[in-house]
């Protein structure tokens, strides 16, 4: 789509009472930085900027950026010096700016990141630097963007410093009289090792391409999954670490993927499940899973991440949560027991569903507890999926076969234990669901965090009260949070004298707050398509402009009243 062909009204032609004329020292349109020869005009309809082309500074072009294209605004107002205004725009607006200014396309990016454009991301950010702004102009700007976020002078300086460091011409800063400081800004197409966590042998190596998958609308890869789970594991209490084991994101794929046996005669007496177990046998070489209460397994199937947690694999049946007394759950009718399903066999009794279990003949000589309201623990496989539309009964079955083989290997001196859907029921937990097609990996990480920070208090199936375990914004800000964590760990490793800054990539949040409104860009971009001359006749364009003017007039009436000069 040719965004340059969009018919945009010149915002200087309107007689708008909410108009401010800004004499800017510097204007930054992404990485295109210039000293404007004409003032920037701000009205209730938008922002008008006269900018030189990047390749031909003598040729000027007019940019008209509509108010509805601004999704976040940041400002530091000073009546003395160093005021700034920063606007984050929609992707469609960034494309318009890029095309009008004839900005070059991004260099060839890394494999797997074809949907990411560093140039387009930069073009979404507009920064105006001014000496001072009077009270009247401040009032107009506050009225137009009622979501304006005002920051302090020190925050504004750090903001501009970060903007300077995003410039590829920025190569370093040789320090003061007593210290030599070096700062290097990495670019997205420069694939290199960023960090090994934890440091030393066996640590997870994180490269630029792994970091880039934290950008908005990108899928989180297995490296980021493993890194964050390891980092989080290191920060839970020792008691929790002692009772928890976390598998690598590649574990389940290795366990479940069929491979042709190179030496079929060697494993002639083994079942298929035992052959599968052999492939991952060394993953638990130094650990006994049956001494753990929780086994965390991140799983990726068909480019979708979800989480499985094996709970209390050493238990032979349900017990009370606090006193460890055996619990006798009502048995189901025979027709339910014969139901061949990978999930927990359940029946409905009022609003509660009760799970069937195998009784333990060798349990303590204590009267079973029959109180259905008392919290319990029981061996189970819990599935946490942010797209709960597919049954994972095959996954549950695979994990049960794995446990049976692992039990035989780890505890050879006792009779083997066969795990099945009666003594190890499976359950799809109702948890918060993703609202897009790319955040499944982030939800997986958040499920693990909440599992320890807000733990389940009753393992009676179905697990209840987790549908609102956390808010969507908690996941939305996770990309930025992980990026900040990586930068912090890199700073600790490299030291202040050799600082390496991560590539500047788009996140859905800034300082933990959503950059874009909850409505998606598609509605606005569809409006632009309708206005495109390639789609409809010129007369229709004029009609749409008239309707747009009416909408702007209605919006102007809703603006706060600004007292005249």
UniProtKB/TrEMBL annotation:
Renumbered to this chain, the Basic and acidic residues biased-composition regions fall at 545-555
The Swiss-Prot or TrEMBL record annotates one GO molecular function as: SUMO-specific endopeptidase activity
Q: Could you name the Gene Ontology cellular component terms for this entry?
A: cytoplasm; nucleus
Q: Where is the composition biased (Basic residues)?
A: 556-565
Region Disordered: start-end pairs:
531-565
Q: Which is a Pfam family this sequence falls into?
A: Peptidase_C48
Where does the source fall among the domains of life?
Eukaryota
**Family to which this protein belongs:** Belongs to the peptidase C48 family.
Return the protein name.
Ubiquitin-like protease family profile domain-containing protein
């Amino acid at each position: 789509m040719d965004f340059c062909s969009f018919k945009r009204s010149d915002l200087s032609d309107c007689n708008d009472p909410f108009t401010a004329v800004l004499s800017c020292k510097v204007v930054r349109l992404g990485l295109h930085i210039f000293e404007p020869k004409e003032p920037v005009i701000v009205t209730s309809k938008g922002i008008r900027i006269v900018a030189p082309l990047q390749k031909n500074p003598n040729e000027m072009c007019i940019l008209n950026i509509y108010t509805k294209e601004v999704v976040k605004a940041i400002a530091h107002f000073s009546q003395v010096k160093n005021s700034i205004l920063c606007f984050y725009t929609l992707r469609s607006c960034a494309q318009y700016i890029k095309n009008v200014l004839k900005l070059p396309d991004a260099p060839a990016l890394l494999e797997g990141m074809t949907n990411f454009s560093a140039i387009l991301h930069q073009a979404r950010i507009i920064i105006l630097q001014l000496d001072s702004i009077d009270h009247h102009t401040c009032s107009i700007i506050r009225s137009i963007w009622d979501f304006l976020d005002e920051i302090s002078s020190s925050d504004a300086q750090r903001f501009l410093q970060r903007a300077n460091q995003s410039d590829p011409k920025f190569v370093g800063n040789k320090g003061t009289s007593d210290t030599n400081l070096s700062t290097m800004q990495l670019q997205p197409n420069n694939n290199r090792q960023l960090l090994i966590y934890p440091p030393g042998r066996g640590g997870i190596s994180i490269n630029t391409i792994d970091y880039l998958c934290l950008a908005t609308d990108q899928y989180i890869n297995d490296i980021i999954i493993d890194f964050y789970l390891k980092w989080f594991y290191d920060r839970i209490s020792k008691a929790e670490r002692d009772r928890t084991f976390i598998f690598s994101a590649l574990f389940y794929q290795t366990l479940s993927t069929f491979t042709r046996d190179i030496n079929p005669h060697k494993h002639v007496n083994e079942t298929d499940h035992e052959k599968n177990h052999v492939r991952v046998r060394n993953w638990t070489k130094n650990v006994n899973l049956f001494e753990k209460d929780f086994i965390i397994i991140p799983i990726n199937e068909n480019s979708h991440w979800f989480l499985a947690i094996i709970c209390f694999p050493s238990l032979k049946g349900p017990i009370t949560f606090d006193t460890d007394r055996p619990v006798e759950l009502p048995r189901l009718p025979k027709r339910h027991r014969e139901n061949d399903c990978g999930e927990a066999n359940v029946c409905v009794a009022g609003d509660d569903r009760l799970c069937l279990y195998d009784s333990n003949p060798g349990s303590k000589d204590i009267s079973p507890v029959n109180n259905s309201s008392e919290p319990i623990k029981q061996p189970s496989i819990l599935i946490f999926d942010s797209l709960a539309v597919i049954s994972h009964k095959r996954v549950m079955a695979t994990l049960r076969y794995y446990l049976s083989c692992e039990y035989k290997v780890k505890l050879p001196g006792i009779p083997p234990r066969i795990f099945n859907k009666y003594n190890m029921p499976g359950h799809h937990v109702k948890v918060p669901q993703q609202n897009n097609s790319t955040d499944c990996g982030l939800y997986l990480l958040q499920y693990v965090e909440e599992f320890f920070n807000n733990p389940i208090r009753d393992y009676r199936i179905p697990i209840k009260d987790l549908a609102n375990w956390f808010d969507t914004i908690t996941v939305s800000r996770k990309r930025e949070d992980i990026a900040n964590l990586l930068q912090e760990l890199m700073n600790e490793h490299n030291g202040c004298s050799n600082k390496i800054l991560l590539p500047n990539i788009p996140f859905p949040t800034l300082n933990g707050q959503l950059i874009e409104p909850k409505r998606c860009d598609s509605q606005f971009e569809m409006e632009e398509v309708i206005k495109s001359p390639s789609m409809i006749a010129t007369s229709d364009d004029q009609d749409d402009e008239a309707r747009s003017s009416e909408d702007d007039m209605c919006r102007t009436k809703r603006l706060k009243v600004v007292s005249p000069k």
